[in-house]
Amino acid sequence: MKLVLHTYDLKLKHKFKIAHDSRTVQKTLIVELNHGAHSGFGEATASNYYKVSIDVMISELEANRKLIESYNFEKPEEFWKKLKVYIGNSFVLSALDVAIHDLYAKAKGKSLRELWGLSNHFFPTSNYTIGIDTIENMAAKLKEFPWPKYKIKLGTKEDIKIIRELRKLTDAVFRVDANCGWSVEETLENARMLKELNVEFIEQPLAAGNWEGMSILHKKSELPIFADESCINEQDINKCVGHFHGVNIKLMKCGGFTPAKRMIQNARNQGMKVMVGCMTESSVGISAVAQLLPMLDYVDMDGFLLLENDIAEGPKLINNKIVVPQGEGIGVNRLFTAAANKLENVTTGS
Prior knowledge:
The chain is α/β, with parallel strands linked by helices. Helix content is 35%, strand content 24%.
């Protein structure tokens, strides 16, 4: 098996601002695992919040190249278990886990959903994210992209005013994400007003470590509270019980499909709702998220819609609906090698 690394700059259509970050370009790393006639792809984006850079990820992959390329094509879960001993970066582990699942399913001639025995009858509709900006600009973004469900990023001094103004423009479902930007008192008060504005739920209002505050919100909030920054890995699911009504699981944060599937099942067993989200990713990462759709209550897979230039063919936007890839593996068969945003293509190794 051969490990091939591709790095890109993903250019965003608009500056993307949340409570703790702002960017116009998203750096990303595509991991390709090639074996025979097939290639499997996985994605890991750089993240300031989680202190993950492209250089750090490439260094860890190169340090483990021999181990990765010596894989004898057992089941993907065994590959993940083997790599987990040596690779501590969950973003790197996720890209490898997705890539090997993709490769394995392609070798079997099936999509991952088929291989996992999942039904194609229910796919929750993704929300579309409106990042923090002036109220006028947020309204313009909403009007530019008519959609049935929006995630509105909050964490400003005008949060309720923002939602009131946006609500005048549409009766679409609103979800709000404060990205750790509120206090307990603010959340309780905001939840009361946001409920009146037909908001569905609130995502991560408090700092990730404020478990005492989240316990209060779990009991008293008039809207359901979902974990994001508080739900990183498998151990966090049990921590979230009694603190959140639902969890937002992200492949890069937890380390890929292998732990994510266990997290989904555990959350359901604990009576919590389940959402899978995305970072600002290309169609490679979003196609991976799409494989989990039949297992979810909610999904945030709009990353590719926020990009000026994508690097692969995956989900498509048709008649205001995201149509998920139907091909083998995760549905991505090639990268756009002539993409204008390409930085380099690292193909070292034998």
